[in-house]
Amino acid sequence: MLYDIPMNTISRFNSLDEVGGQNQASQRGHPVSRLLGTRSIVLVGLMGAGKSTVGRRLAQALKLPFRDADHEIEAAAGMTIPEIFAIHGEEHFRDGERRVIARLLQDGPIVLATGGGAFMNEETRRRIAEHGISLWLKADLDILMRRVRKRATRPLLQNPDPEGTMRRLMELRYPVYATADITIDSHEAPHDRVVADAVKALAEWLAREKQGSAEA
Predict the structure, then answer these.
(1) Based on the structure, what is the number of domains in the chain?
(2) Which domain holds residue 136?
(3) SS3 of 117, please?
(4) Which of 61, 103, 154, 204 falls 20 to 30 Å from 88 in CA-CA distance?
C-alpha cells in the first residue's frame, strides 16, 4: 500500500546518518538539541522557502538527523510527487503526506522539512504541536519565484500563470503558517546566516519555555 513502507527501510534518502542513535546525539550535542527532549524541529513554508536546504544545515548545526517529508513520501510510494499527483490526484497525495509525517514525528528528535501544503492540514498541525516545534521560513514573492523557476517539477505550478498561483497560495497559507511557534525570514542571504537566525530563535524560544515551566 502507498506510503506504508516501514520507516527503517526508506532512510536511504536521509542526508545525515543516525550515528550513535538520536537520544545519544541529543544528549551530547548542541544545547538546543538537549532541550528538545523527543520533540522535533519542523520546518514549514511555501515551495522555494528553502526548507530542505536550510533543514539539512540546521540538522548539521544541531547534530540531529534530518528528514525530508517529500523524499520519504516518494520512497514509500515508489514514485515521484509529480507522478503521484498525475496518477492519484492531490487528495490522495495529501492523505499519504499526513500519514508519513505522523510516522516521522514519532522518530524525534529530528529536523523535519515538510511540503508546502502539509501545515494546512489541521491534524498535522496538531501532531506537530504535540511532538515538535514548528518553524516557518517566510519569504517574499520575488524570492520564491526566483527559486521555484529553477525546478520545473512543481505540480501546483504547472499552469499558465505560476506567479498568480503563488500569490494565491501566499494569501491562503501565510495566515496559517503564521501560527507556527517561530518565524524566520528566508531572505537572499547565505544559508548559513538563515541557519544561525534559526538556531538563535530556537534557543530563545526554548529558554522562554523553560522559564515559563519554572514559574508555573
Answers:
(1) 1
(2) 35-210
(3) coil
(4) 103
pLDDT tens for each residue of 71-94 = 999 998 899 988 998 999 988 999
Helix orientation angle between 90-104 and 69-77, rounded to the nearest 10 degrees: 110
Buried b (16+ CB within 10 A) or exposed e, 153-183: ebbbbeeeebeeebeebbeebeeebeebbbb
Dig out the grid coordinates for 162 from the structure.
Answer: 505560476
DSSP 215: H
Give me the CATH number covering residue 158.
Answer: 3.40.50.300
Binding-site sequence positions for Mg(2+): 52
SS3 content of the chain, % helix, strand, coil (to 5): 60, 10, 30
> What span, in angstroms and rounded, lies between the C-alpha atoms of 189 and 106?
33
Q: Which residues are annotated as a binding site?
A: 48-53, 70, 94, 116, 154, 173
Highest mean pLDDT among 13-22, 29-38, 158-167: 29-38
Between CA 216 and CA 211 the distance in angstroms is 9
Whether the CA torsion 53, 57, 60, 62 is positive or negative: it is: negative
Assigned domain for 90 exists: yes
pTM of the model: 0.83
* Sequence ranges of the binding site for ATP: 48-53, 154
Residue 76 lies in a domain: yes
* Cα 87–Cα 145–Cα 71 angle in degrees, nearest 5: 40
